[in-house]
Design goal:
about 120 residues
Length: about 120
């Protein structure tokens, strides 16, 4: 149990720091009322989790320990639903209704599509 907690915790730490750095970089590079940083991180995280689960089904290279570290830890720390919800609330509060609908709709649709695409990639290669 301690090993599992350490795997998930270490992955979560690395994922959280990666999310912070990538999100800040994206928002600084493309300033906008649209929360591009969190959007990019969440879509990339969906693609990564699709790749991880697709590869773990295809081969024994990704053990249960690696899957816990990568999917539960890293991807769990990397993506963030609470920030997504808070940014949507801010968009509504600021009257940015178009960005609210784009952010919400595209996040859900592209997130599911990216996860699916990640699994498909592992089946092709």
């Amino acid at each position: 149990m301690i090993k599992t907690i350490l795997l998930v915790g270490t992955g979560g730490f690395i994922g959280s720091v990666s999310r912070y750095l990538l999100s800040r970089f994206m928002q600084a590079s493309f300033p906008s009322a649209f929360p591009l940083g969190t959007f990019a991180v969440n879509i990339l995280g969906c693609l990564l989790i699709g790749l991880i689960y697709g590869l773990s089904e295809k081969s024994t290279a990704i053990t249960m320990g690696w899957r816990l570290f990568l999917a539960v830890g890293f991807c769990g720390g990397f993506t963030t639903f609470s920030t997504f919800a808070n940014e949507n609330l801010a968009l509504l509060r600021d009257g940015e209704f178009l960005y609210f609908f784009l952010y919400t709709g595209l996040s859900v649709l592209l997130g599911i599509a990216a996860t699916f695409f990640g699994v498909i990639i592992t089946k092709i290669f």
